[in-house]
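User: Some background: our group keeps a shared notebook of sequences we're curious about, and every so often someone picks one and asks for a predicted structure to add to the entry. Today it's my turn. The entry only has the sequence so far, pasted here. Could you supply the structure so I can complete it?
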Amino acid sequence: MFSQRTWTRLGLSVLVSGLIQLCIVHRLAATGEASFAGSPQPVQENIQQTSVSLTFVRAFSSADDVRPSHPILDRSLDIIAGPADPRTRVDALLSPSAVATDSKHRVFVADPGAKTVHIFDFIHSKYGRLEGRGDRLHDPVSLAVDGQDNLYVGDQNNGNVLVYDSAGKFRRYLGRLRGGESYFDGPTGIAIDLATGHIYVCDRQRHMIIVMDERGKLIRKLGIRGGGERPGQFRFPTQVVVSGSELFVLDVGNSRIQILDTGGHFQRVLNLAYADRRTGLAVDRQGNIYVSDPILNKLQVFRDDGHAIYTFDWSANKDASFSHPSSMWVDADRSLYVVDSQGNQVGLLQINGQNPQH
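Assistant: Of course. Here's the predicted structure to add to the notebook entry:
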């Protein structure tokens, strides 16, 4: 079950949170040339849409961020409950690697450094964690959520994909074999087709995408052992996204994004100038493709046809102190969540002027 932080500081903050107005500073996204990702077509300045592209909303990194912050309130809490524990906090991000949301607007953050998955519920001002027991959650690196709000967690250390229900109760392993061994060699990215329930898992070390049904039965394998460069073949795939009837795969070893149909048939390719295991991938409902570059501290956005639209430069945004944008997630409310793997935080961006829930 989720472990809830019920200590006095958080409880008092919930009682008074209704008296405090949280101010969120908006800043329009900055743009620049497409310097780190290539596309089949040249970049055109006249199609950049800075006024309706990405706007930074907020960042969060610990349980404290599920409530408004107020200097007088915080000082009072220190007097009543005592100062915060100086030891390493288990309710703060230590080395976040992935982010996802469910239909209840809860935000899940995989954190291999803390060996846990953090749960931020901003609507109800609650924080919780998925606790690791036995061989669970040793190295959670990837997340996905299905149509019933079941949470899928890829654990790279033991090669398992763990499934939790919407209440946080562990249900089963995906692809676990007899004797405790896993079908996967190195599961990284996970995506779920909400229309069919099919689950796509990047098995990085086998250079494959493993496709299973919702019961964990193998449907097919995409790619070949040893990897390859031809269409439909991969070298170290790390991220996968389902959008509509298409499957987007970040093929890191070949510095490209391959787009297939959900049956695994190759459709087209988006070539990148650079990609590594930290590069993130997301796709919104309009089919726009988001690629993060942790080296240049930027996000590149492409149209569905691979045409570069604009670049969001974190270093040019005074409201956001980001350094290494990596994994990303687009929710149903057109909000883009971005993991800062080095700054130990998650950023929330607003897409096309739509107001996010949080």
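Suggested note for the entry: The chain has one domain: 3-351. Residues 3-351 form a domain with the Neuraminidase fold (CATH 2.120.10.30).
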